[in-house]
């Protein structure tokens, strides 16, 4: 039997990259998938088509994770069209860079609202629907939830906060048998990183820091996600799983 047969999953930011790869992997294993996007409706449509081609039900909705009303409307639509969700993947996120004295409050607030408040709002709606217990929440953080990155303080603050939220919720929801885990990707080839990876000069600068010598693939993250939201991970909760080709271990080498 398929690992996620009969399950219903919500994946935020599933219009491209890791979110799209996870939607494909979950549908391959039998899950109905709610596909969401912020602005890339064409990418989201391709994701939905892949879900349906796998023989699974899908739903497509625009979502602003920074708006609790938008989040509530998404969950209501899932309830009505697919059923009570069993799996929530908080994947939607943005970056934010600049020197501390140059970053405006609006930028800092936007990154935190998207990368930290968004998962919080979604988790609230998800747990309200799991009154009988059970379910899986998976938060996509970053290696920068632990590794400092100068010039990216909003992103680091948001992702570090999301890891702490993951651990807090894992304890709070354990009695309800809701697993809460996180994946911390390193450099993964997605639309967000394409500009860096497609530039030969930047590749030469960045790839030597990765012991594996290459960027990761969205599909590799998706396979780890599939394990964490599936039945084989029922005894796994409160954990952050790094997938980075050894980047985090290599941080600080040569000091």
- Rg computed from alpha carbons, rounded to a whole number of angstroms: 18 Å
Q: What's the tally of helices?
A: 9
Structural class: alpha/beta
- Uncertain residue ranges: none
Q: What letter string, H or E per element, gives the SSE order?
A: EHEHEHEHEHEHHHEH
Q: What would you call the shape?
A: globular
- CATH T-level fold name: Rossmann fold
Helix content: 40-55%
User: What count of domains describes the coordinates?
Assistant: 1
The CATH architecture can be named as 3-Layer(aba) Sandwich
Sheet having the most strands: 7 strands, parallel
Distance between the termini: 50 Å
Overall residue-averaged pLDDT value: 94
Number of strands: 7
Given this structure, which CATH class is correct?
Alpha Beta
In terms of DSSP E residues, the strand content is 5-15%
Strand order of the largest sheet: 3-2-1-4-5-6-7
Explain the overall architecture.
This protein has one domain (8-243): 3-Layer(aba) Sandwich (Rossmann fold), CATH 3.40.50. Helix content is 43%, strand content 14%. It is built from nine helices and seven strands, in the order βαβαβαβαβαβαααβα. A seven-stranded parallel beta sheet has the order 3-2-1-4-5-6-7, sandwiched between helices. The longest helix has 24 residues, at 105-128.
Which labels suit this protein?
7-stranded parallel beta sheet; 14% strand; 7 strands; 9 helices; alpha/beta; 43% helix
Topology:
Blueprint: E1 8-11, H1 17-28, E2 32-37, H2 41-53, E3 58-62, H3 68-81, E4 87-90, H4 105-128, E5 136-140, H5 153-172, E6 179-185, H6 194-197, H7 200-206, H8 218-229, E7 240-243, H9 247-250
Parallel strand pairs: 1-2, 1-4, 2-3, 4-5, 5-6, 6-7
Helix pairs in contact: 1-2, 1-8, 3-4, 4-5
